[in-house]
Amino acid sequence: MGRPPCCDKVGVKKGPWTPEEDTMLISYVEEHGPGNWRAVPTKTGLRRCSKSCRLRWTNYLRPGIKRGTFTDNEEKMIVQLQALLGNKWAAIASYLPERTDNDIKNYWNTHLKKKLKKLENGSGHDPTGINGYNSSNSHSSGQWERRLQSDDINTAKQALQDALTIDENKSHLSHELIVMPSNYNGSSYASSTENIARLLKDWVKNTPKSDHQESKSSSSGHNLSDFTMTMEYSNCAEGKTGIDLSEAFESLFGFESNFESSNNSDDFSRATSPSVVHGEIKPDPTTGLASLSILENWLLDDQGKDYLRNFSFDENPNLF
DNA sequence: AATGTGAGCAACCGCGAAAAA
DNA sequence: GTTTTTCGCGGTTGCTCACAT
């Protein structure tokens, strides 16, 4: 089953991308918008398979991607969402709009898994709340060891609250990109954020605004001219992952996720509150973001707390 | 200084789902 | 309704770099 490899053609290039290839891809997306990846190699002259082009764009060239160290808040969000959703990296990434699913997956595999293992072996306090969940491989095995206890609820609550507390200064600082050095080394190009900054700078400079607006990409609202990454871009703007989460909610919690947006005056909550239409989470039209507020609101209120306390994953093995 | 080892991450592969023919 | 094509996701690989020996 499944489709055969799309890149078995002779002459298809593999391996790290060069600046020239990135420029070609960016030019194409700037003109046509992301999508129709099949046409990219022929229209751009890139000797890459369409899959590789999509991946390069999604994981690296796409505007709004934050690179570098994960913050404590991001880490907590990942841990809690992984415990809730399993290895649904795309769904998790929709709640961390500046991070790609690949990044989150890598971070989980290289950092958080080890942390989990360490915590499982040790007997110390678990500040992330991952101890106690059999979160490793949770969705494939379906083996959740026990009911959630009140400690778990409190930990989840704390983690979510922490995650929603955004340090404005810190986040802006971490989003700054740097001008590319003139002595770039081709071999390390693919891991050079500076190169992307340079490419995007040229791209934005040469791009009429109307093109971006008409693009079917979800990149509306970008402000790349000063290279300050914003939280306005999200792959969930396509509405896909948000719906997935909504469905997961319905199946998990047994009722429609028809929450009202929070009345919270907190800027972050307001800025990221999606609308919920017919049980589907719709990204905020102005920000393109799905929000944690639905999850957060429900999880933190008494109804969610009670449900989680009494919920047994053993009795619901097919949820994830 | 040379070599070995492990961590981190970009990119690839294979699969399933959805869309198109 | 069936087959083919395309897209997107999650798992895995392999390259690069930093650090230890």
Would you mind describing this structure in some detail?
The longest helix is centred in the middle third of the chain and has 21 residues, at 101-121. This protein has a two-stranded antiparallel sheet. It has helices spanning 19-32, 40-44, 50-61, 72-85, 89-93, 101-121, 138-141, 150-164, 168-175, 193-205, 209-214, 240-253, 267-271, 293-300, 302-310; strands at 275-277, 280-282. The model is unreliable at 1-5, 123-157, 159-188, 190-196, 206-294 and 298-320 (pLDDT under 50). A hairpin with a 2-residue loop joins strand 1 and strand 2 (280-282). The chain has 320 residues and is an all-alpha fold. It has 2 domains: 19-61 and 189-214, no CATH class; 72-168 and 236-310, no CATH class. The chain starts with 18 loop residues before the first helix and ends in a 10-residue tail after the last helix. It is built from 15 helices and 2 strands. Helix 1 (19-32) packs parallel to helix 10 and helix 4 (72-85) packs across helix 8. It binds a DNA duplex (21 and 21 nucleotides) through helix 3 and helix 6.
Mean pLDDT across every amino acid position = 55
Number of strands: 2
Question: What is the helix fraction of residues, given as a range?
Answer: 40-55%
Largest sheet: 2 strands, antiparallel
As residue ranges, the low-confidence spans are 1-5, 123-157, 159-188, 190-196, 206-294, 298-320
How many structural domains does the protein architecture include?
2
Number of helices: 15
Side by side, the strands of the main sheet go 1-2
| Gap between N and C termini | 22 Å
From the helix content, strand content and strand pairing, which structural class follows?
mainly alpha
Shape: elongated
